[in-house]
Amino acid sequence: MAAKRLPEIAGSASSADIGAQYFTIRNPAFRSFLDQYAGRESYGEWSGIFRFQGADNVWQQLRPAERFVGIPRMTAITRALSTSLEIKAGIRIQSLDQGTGGLWRLTDTDGGVHDGFDAVLLTPPPAQTEELLKASRLDSLANDLNIRISRLQACWTVVVRFPTGTGTDISGYMPNSRLLHWAGNNSSKPGREDEGEWWVLHGDPDWSDANTETDPEEVRRQLLDEFLSISGITAEPSETLLHRWLYARPRARTGPGHLWFDDHRIGIMGDWLEGGRVEGAFNSADGLVRRLESLGLVPAPQPDAEVQS
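The chain above was modelled as a monomer; its predicted structure follows.
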């Protein structure tokens, strides 16, 4: 989940969700996790009209579902989850070394050493994870990772503002297009305070893959023109922002969930191991944690003690 601050003309507190547009909840444990650790106020339902085009290009209603978003932006959820955690930002680990007693030592790109770890859990995209494993002389793990998981596809994202609105009541489009995968009215999400309407456009995965090195202005033009064409919107756009995700969507719809290399005590997790989706990230991590609990590497949660009368 990611958000990008918008120009001041849209209001100082405004931002647009440039990554995951919304999430669904199929696993009851995911809802319980969010409510307990992020708080129910950090997210809410995005009610609206969502349409898609079939192969015949006829617009249809997207399947009814509860679609949730962070409030006032998607990153509100991750910020809430990290409140009680000790997080060290701006540090890039370049190698892992397993020393005496099996404890892990991590060395960062500035030469700093972080040691004394029983296990290492990795969450970067597969390309960076593979690179780190090879730099740590763990080629067998890197090769196993390369065989067992799906590669991630790129995604070009354009954020565009319509200062006087668009005149449409549609909140999201999924067109039958070789260029455009999704177009969503970010300003229609709950808790947003924007001037005008900001829309987020996501390029088709195959098209984005083929155009990762295309001139950004050309990408911007093609995606915006495609959106205006398929939506029939005639309003004049003003500001636009552009972002390129090199690693966005897994090709495969399914995956192993997580990876655990017991001999090395290295675990790998991420939404890309669970077929994508925000909930997939939770399911991947939850599955790995359950495995670590069974191995005695992390304590299992204890039920609340009964109150003695």
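Confidence is low (pLDDT under 50) at residues 305-309.
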